[in-house]
Structures are given as structure tokens and as C-alpha cells.
Design a protein that fits this description.
Elements lengths: L4 H4 L6 H9 L10 E11 L14 H12 L2 E5 L2 E7 L2 E5 L5 E4 L6 H22 L1 E4 L18 H9 L7 H7 L2 E6 L4 H21 L5 E2 L2 E2 L5 H5 L8 E2 L11 H10 L4 E4 L2 E4 L5 H5 L13 H8 L3 E2 L1 E3 L3 E7 L3 H15 L2 H11 L4 H14 L4 E2 L2 E2 H19 L14 H9 L3 H9 L10 H4 L3
Parallel strand pairs: 10-13
Antiparallel strand pairs: 1-5, 1-6, 1-7, 2-3, 3-4, 4-5, 7-15, 8-9, 11-12, 14-15, 16-17
């Protein structure tokens, strides 16, 4: 949700404004929507290298080509195109040029999948002429961190300089990971709390089902979701499982207090990003930052600051599910289907919370810590995570069937769970399938992934 212009410049005078901002996201059930985001790696077809920003075959040329052909408006930083906007959707750039679609808020998964497919067709039509392709995986399978280009965005320069001070894998997170997310609504504070707790506890199940990042620099890395592992050594101040969400009395206010303790990255002032990395947002509210003396934080600064924490589930004026690796088009539709099925039907949410609520703090952390390496085969309570995944998918499927949102052929949204059901039935994650190919048909090379799994 964008902030009205009149609100952006409103100075912050106290915590209650910040609490009220989160509460303003509440929507009645008939206004609940589904916002899906996904990132993908670009590569040059001839040498498989990631495209730079400039050049005849660069990301700038791609953005300008998509804009001119398909009616997107170009958003710029100075004179540099950094995003595309059309209706309520955006195409943005991750730090190394990973292309992200931030989809419009839609009513059904059928609409979401149409949006995904239309976007991929638009990108492909322009990319083909530039000799570029795009790949959906959780981690760049071939190229080293030093091979990755950097996009000319002010906030990324600030983050690039700050990340090595707080973790060893933050630059990998920025340049070599891709995810698929879904953003979902809530009707009240109590509804937010129930959905936050349920989705946070079950996020490792999504990580296991979508695990698709088994290679680093052309070799198996010992993980099934290396992307998920990367987050464990990015920045402890802004990542993780947020145990306080499960405490009695969790609320908008408690989340605000968490965010006020998250160190800042930047403030966007007069068209420029001001480096405030590591500084205290509370001091910014009081106008006492040395870098911006006398300047008080505004509600736009607060909205920006909310985007700089990266827990497994993130609260803004909606909830973001952040646990899944990027993947092929059908899993880009499956991720929103999974969480809509669990969270947007009352009976399913009750059943999902009943399951999530049985997990102890130790079990939640054991799942989060173990799933990146073992995915569905992680032992759990005498069985494996596969058993949990099967139960979660059954709840989600019933939830989608009860929603009864039908396409023109009379099929409900549960059809979009089929790729995940196949993964559970085969007991083989996408990562395990690629490792199998690597050790057989691909003869120890990751290069075929760019052809066989490209969009």
C-alpha cells in the first residue's frame, strides 16, 4: 500500500503514529487481496553470465524495451531507470539485476497465475531479442559473488558497505538469491496475531517444499535451500524467527518496538539516499541524528524503515511470507495458493494454528535451522518434515476448496497446489531433482540448468 502524499511528509511525534500506521492496514474480509512477488536471475544466452546494467544487452535496455512495448511507466533515480510501474504492479531491480515483479493486489490465485504468465511472456519477448534468458532458483548456481554486477541504486550502495560489518553472507543475500513471496491481509489486530504466529511457525515447511538452491559456483553446496541458509548469517538484528511474536500480548505495538530497535540503513531526502547505516531510528524521530541535524523522521521514513527488516514473516500494512526459494512459473502460483489456503479460510486457519501451536520454541528453531540442509527429510517427532508438509498441504487444499473461487473451467484454486503435492508424493524436492541430474545427465555441470529450467 502506498502512502498518501499528504501523509508522507508528516513528522513523527510519537510511537502511537507508528502503531496506527500498522493498524491502518486492517481490511474487511471482502477487501482481502493477494499480492505475489517473485525474483529471477538474468543471464546472457551465449556465456550464461549475468547481464550488467549498461550495454546493448544490459538491464537498462531490457527495462526500456519492456516499458516501450507494454505500456509501463519508468521510475528513475536521477536519470537512471530503476523500476517500471503499471496500474498497481511494479517491476524492480534487486542488487545484482535480479528482476522482480511486485504484482498487483488481486482477488484470486487464478488472477495471480495469469499475471505471472503475462509478465514472463512480456519479459521473454524483449529478453529474447537481447539474447538474454531468466531462471527461477533460490541461489545463483554458477557465478561467484565477484562475478555479479551491481545495479546503480542508492540504497544498495549503502547496504553493500554495511552488510560485511554485521554478517558474512549479506552480500550473497543481495546479489545471489531469489525468492517468491506472497503478501496477505488481516482484518484486525487479533487476526494479524493469529496469522503472524501461524505463518511464522510453519514457514520452514514452505522452505522445505520450495527448496531449490543446491549449487554454489557450479558445485553442490551441501544444502537444499542455500538461500535460506544465507539468511542465518546476514544480519542478526533484522532476521530470524522472532520469538516475541509468540509471547502473550503480542501486538502492533510490540512489533513497532522491535522495529525501533532495528538499526537504520538510510533516509531518502530530496531525491538522494542519505547513509544512516547502523543509526537509531528513535534518535531520528527526535531530530538528533548527527548526519541529519534537526531533521525529524517522517511517516515515509517509517514506511521505508519497515522494509529494512528481513524476518521469515514481515509485518507492514500486510503480512509477507518470506520463506521460499524462487522457482519455475507453476511454483510462483503455488506459493500464494499455499498461504491463501491456510490463512484466508477460517476453518483452515484454525486447523493450521492448531498444528503450529503444538510446536515448541525449540522445535520451531530446529525446523528453521535444519530445513535448509535436509528439507523434507529432516527428522521430526518420529517422522520427517515430509509428514508435516503433507498435513499442511491438506489443510491448505481444503481451505482453497471452501473459498470456491472458480476459473472459467469450473476448477477451484486448489489446482495450484498440485506441484507441491507432487513434490511430497515423490519425496523429492526441486533441489534433489537438480542434484540427481547434476550427477547423471548433466555430467557434473550446472550449465544445463540455464536451458532446461529457464522461463
Amino acid at each position: 500500500m502506498s502512502i498518501p502524499s499528504a501523509v508522507k511528509s508528516t513528522p513523527i511525534h510519537g510511537r502511537q503514529q507508528l502503531i496506527d500506521y500498522l493498524a491502518a492496514g486492517e481490511k474487511p474480509r471482502d477487501a482481502w487481496r493477494i499480492g505475489t512477488e517473485h525474483e529471477k536471475f538474468g543471464f546472457r544466452n551465449d556465456d550464461l553470465r549475468p547481464p550488467t546494467f549498461e550495454g546493448d544487452r544490459g538491464i537498462r535496455a531490457l527495462l526500456e524495451g519492456i516499458a516501450s512495448r507494454y505500456g509501463w511507466d519508468i521510475a528513475r533515480e536521477g536519470d537512471t531507470p530503476v523500476a517500471l510501474i503499471r496500474d498497481k504492479a511494479n517491476i524492480t531491480l534487486e542488487p545484482a539485476g535480479q528482476l522482480e515483479l511486485s504484482g498487483a493486489p488481486l482477488e484470486t490465485i487464478h488472477q495471480t497465475c495469469c499475471e505471472v504468465n503475462s509478465h514472463l511472456e512480456e519479459v521473454r519477448s524483449v529478453a529474447d531479442e537481447l539474447g538474454l534468458g531468466f531462471l527461477g532458483m533460490g541461489f545463483q548456481p554458477k557465478w561467484a559473488r565477484s562475478d555479479m554486477p551491481w545495479m546503480p541504486k542508492g540504497r544498495y550502495k549503502i547496504m553493500r558497505e554495511y552488510m560485511p560489518k554485521v554478517g558474512s553472507l549479506g552480500l550473497d543475500m543481495m546479489t545471489r538469491t531469489c525468492t517468491v513471496q506472497v503478501n496477505l491481509d488481516f482484518s484486525s489486530e487479533a487476526d494479524m496475531v493469529r496469522k503472524f504466529r501461524t505463518s511464522l511457525a510453519l514457514q520452514p515447511i514452505a522452505t522445505a517444499l520450495f527448496a531449490d538452491s543446491p549449487f554454489t559456483e557450479g558445485k553442490p553446496n551441501g544444502y537444499q535451500s542455500y538461500r535460506s541458509h544465507v539468511w542465518t548469517d546476514t544480519d542478526p538484528n533484522r532476521t530470524g524467527m522472532l520469538d516475541f511474536v509468540f509471547d502473550d500480548g503480542f501486538s502492533y505495538e510490540r512489533y513497532v518496538d522491535y522495529m525501533l530497535d532495528v538499526p537504520m540503513y538510510f533516509s531518502y531526502q530530496n531525491g538522494h539516499y542519505i547513509d544512516l547505516a547502523g543509526q537509531d531510528f528513535k534518535r531520528f524521530m527526535g531530530g538528533t541524528l548527527d548526519a541529519l541535524p534537526g531533521t525529524r523522521a517522517t511517516m515515509k521514513d517509517w514506511a521505508d524503515h519497515l522494509t529494512t527488516a528481513f524476518p521469515e514473516v514481515r509485518l507492514k500494512q500486510y503480512l509477507e511470507m518470506r520463506g521460499a526459494d524462487g522457482g519455475p512459473w507453476n511454483r510462483l502460483c503455488a506459493l500464494p495458493a499455499l498461504w491463501v489456503g491456510l490463512l484466508y479460510d477460517d476453518d483452515a486457519l484454525y486447523a493450521a494454528w492448531e498444528l503450529a501451536n503444538t510446536l515448541t520454541r525449540e522445535e520451531r528453531h530446529a525446523l528453521r535451522d535444519g530445513v535448509p540442509k535436509h528439507a523434507m527429510k529432516l527428522p521430526f517427532r518420529g517422522g520427517t518434515v515430509r509428514d508435516l508438509a503433507r498435513e499442511v498441504l491438506e489443510i491448505a487444499s481444503h481451505g482453497l476448496k471452501r473459498r470456491n473461487r472458480l476459473n472459467r473451467n469450473g476448477a477451484d484454486e486448489s489446482i495450484f497446489l498440485d506441484p507441491l503435492i507432487e513434490i511430497v508424493d515423490a519425496n523429492q524436492t526441486p533441489a534433489e531433482r537438480k542434484l540427481e541430474l547434476f550427477h547423471s545427465e548433466w555430467n557434473g555441470s550446472v550449465d544445463p540448468v540455464f536451458k532446461e529450467f529457464a522461463y
